[in-house]
User: Fold this.
Amino acid sequence: MMLGKLALAIATLAGSSSVAAETAFFLQARGGVADMTNFRIDDEEGARQFIAGARWGGVGVELGHLDTGGFTGRFVSTNISGLVLDYSSEVDGWFAGANGRVSLGESPWHVDGRIGALRWSMAYAIVINRPVPSQRFDVDDTGLYAGAGIGRNFGSHASAGIALDYFRLDHRGDVFLDASMRMLSLALEYRF
Assistant:
């Protein structure tokens, strides 16, 4: 819902703005906080992305890598006395997609958006406080990602901004996983 509102705001701004006309290859680093919502995990952790890509007239392509810290969660049973399950997971993945950037008039400010596919893997552990073996799963799958941001150019080669990205992490194999992750980050970009 939040991404939908952000996309609508960007589309509104783009209607009265000019598309950046430069052609540029770029490298971008993003660092911030990600929050995961999963079966039993509702946690925030540090996360980072490294992206390489190109834009032609404001529209481009990107390849990148995502890495998060360890998300944790806890389940305390109300039916079985003393049963406590501790969950933890880390997300790692490679992504490819399309991106776009729109300048806000003649100012150094711009808005951008991105969408694509994420090939992700997750190390997922369940620790049980009973004499039952703990379980560890290595799950991987492909999901979608999308994001939007606003930033400011500093000369013709560098920019900085903030971005909000959404990652869908579904898996329907031996382990059922229905998760999503949002990442709010500071983005630093260098253009060649």
About this structure: DSSP finds one helix and ten strands in the chain. Confidence is low (pLDDT under 50) at residues 6-21.
